Amino acid sequence: xxxxxxxxQNENQEQSQETHKHFLTLHISHKGQQKTLHFRIRHxxxxxxxxxxxxxxxxxAVGAYQKxxxxxxxxxxxxxxxxxxxxxxxxxxxxLETENTEYTENIDALQNKTTELEQKINEIESxxxxxxxxxxxxDESDSSASLDLxxxxxALAPTEGTEAAAPTFTTLVSTSxxxxxxxxxxxxxxxxxxxxxxxxxxAVADTVTYLAALSNAPSGWPxxxxxxxxxxxxxxxxxxSDGRKHYGMDISTQSRIIPIYATASGTVVTAQYHSQFxxxxxxxxxxxxxxxxxxxxxxxxxxxxxxKKGDTIATTGSTGMSTGVHCHYxxxxxxxxxxxxxxxxxx
Length: 347
Known about the structure:
Blueprint: H1 2-21, E1 22-30, E2 33-40, H2 41-139, H3 143-156, H4 168-214, E3 227-230, E4 249-252, E5 259-261, E6 266-274, E7 278-286, E8 289-296, E9 306-307, E10 312-315, E11 326-333, E12 336-338
Antiparallel strand pairs: 1-2, 3-4, 4-11, 5-10, 6-7, 6-9, 7-8, 8-11, 11-12
Helix pairs in contact: 2-4
């Protein structure tokens, strides 16, 4: 009896020791047969390590993917910005070349006018010298001519009681001298007039150049609406509109889809979709001016298109980060945001 009890105790101890060696034991019954699966602690550690490895690898892979995606997006934006700058430089070079051609033509025209005036002045000087020589010859006549002149004057002298006769010869000389003096005075006036004309032409040229520089400056409203929902507020002044930072002006169209017009002539440098602006257009007007029209429904232009003031470039909408149908309108001058209110002109 004692021997059986000892055997049972030994078996229980062996089972207990065997159980302590296992981390998890599963008993599976199938068709009357029972199977036991034992999982040791080292098996659990291996499974945990594999799980940690897989999760960590997945996290690293996702992080690397997101970083690569962000880098690609940044590179794309940089390429687009570089392309815009290149187009601006090309347009400025074309504008400078055009202005240089106009200046060259104006200078050639001035040189031709100057040559014509010099020829006319030389002709007038020649006539003046001829008259001067004739008068000098008359004044320096010989003594016999002086005697004849005296005799002639005596002969023509009026007697008492008779009316004085006109001194014909003296009048002839005086008349020639007066004509020469008048011609000299006229030449002086012409010279003064030429100087004034030159100054006036320079002033007109400067004015024309200035007006040409401003001919492509944005002006007027981009849509047929005067309802401004958000004002220009680059400093986030809480007293302006909703107080948020805003680099343009939002013009509401009362839920209407209407045309958007270019506010000046220029070249389209951007026409695409943006997560913030939605469908938007950027026009380079030269002389440092650019305008932006955002949240459009449809775009009617493409990059590289030449547009004139008043051309339809898009339609209003609510694409991108927008809460209603409107036109977001921005103006930049040499990269500095401008208040569109300053360029609307008289309403």
